[in-house]
Amino acid sequence: MKNNNLQLSSEGKLKHFLSIEGLNHSILSDILDTAESFTSVTERSIKKVPILRGKTVANLFFEASTRTRSTFELAAQRLSADILNLNIDTSAAVKGESLLDTLHNLEAMQIDMFVIRHQDSGSAHFFAQHVNPGVSVLNAGDGQHAHPTQAMLDMFTIRRHKHQFENLTVAIVGDIKHSRVARSQIHALNLLNTGQVRVVAPPTLLPEQAETLGVQVYHKLNKGLKDVDVVIMLRLQKERMTGALLPSEKEYFRQYGLTAERLKLAKADAIVMHPGPANRGIEIESSVMDGNQSVILQQVTYGIAVRMAVMSMIVSGAVESS
Ligand code: NCD
């Protein structure tokens, strides 16, 4: 079988994990099922399995991160990999070394897997095009483009609570335009045949022709929340905004902030999610964030099992195709 997809081997196995686009229903389901089996590993007192023993994973974070970086590190450790955390602020990248030179130097240290977060869209694909055969690249967020492991841990959280996707209505609320998380979530929800995917945002915070992504567009939060099963709130990504796209944070909260009162418009058993970092009082009221419908901290926990799943599938794909 011939395919031009950088992420999949000719046998359809995962080689790199760069974006949800280009993957298929069966790979996404495999990731969710494999992650399910790893949740038991993360819950026991000795949290290690030897799947990545002898392999070296390098974490390259050119942008700030709390959850993604730590859970990738824990995932690699729980699979028994050696892990190298490159501190970019003190690395030669700040002395002007190109990304490609940094890559080649790290490859000279026999790294097997790169986890990369970078401010430029396309940087993970660029890495994947240039690594040696047998070396894998996992995208931990590239510019506004994609954040596929975040999307998969979100899908895992939804499946854990709702058990299926076909009959669900999911609303993604907030700064869709600048959000790599939203883009990856929309692709994943659609590949998993979610009943209805809504995006709720002011026109200035929506990508052009948002409908072509396979979503229903809402500009009013009250309408967008009506009878949904899942609400995903997003941060205002101010560092990516050029010019004034918003009146003020106070006004934004008034129109788009998720309050306990508004949440009542969703189904009574709706879950509230947020990829983090959350800004209390701007996109979400504190009482909702800490309330009993919030699964925000579970998302963080599941991030470990999902990242373990992706890494282990890449390693087993590499074994089978060698
Ligand atoms: C997000 C990111 O960095 O893309 N956070 C995350 O990885 N959990 C979302 C954001 O920055 O708002």
CATH class of the largest domain: Alpha Beta
> Which percent range describes the beta-strand content?
5-15%
CATH superfamily of the largest domain: Aspartate/ornithine carbamoyltransferase
State Rg.
19 Å
Strand and helix order: HEHEHEHEHEHEEHEHHEHH
List the domain count as a whole number.
2
- Derived from helix and strand composition plus strand pairing, the structural class reads alpha/beta
Which term fits the overall shape? globular
Describe this structure in words.
By secondary structure, the protein is of the alpha/beta class. The chain folds into 2 domains: 2-146 and 303-321, Rossmann fold (3-Layer(aba) Sandwich); 148-300, Rossmann fold. The protein has helices spanning 25-43, 67-78, 99-107, 123-130, 148-162, 180-191, 221-225, 249-256, 260-263, 286-289, 296-321; strands at residues 56-61, 82-86, 113-118, 136-142, 169-173, 196-200, 216-218, 230-233, 271-273. The strands form 2 sheets. It has a 5-stranded parallel β-sheet. α1 (25-43) packs across α5 (148-162) and α5 (148-162) crosses α6. It is globular. N-carbamoyl-L-aspartate is lined by residues 67-68, 141, 147, 150, 180-181, 235, 237, 275-277. N-carbamoyl-L-aspartate (NCD) is lined by residues 67-68, 141, 147, 150, 180-181, 235, 237, 275-277.
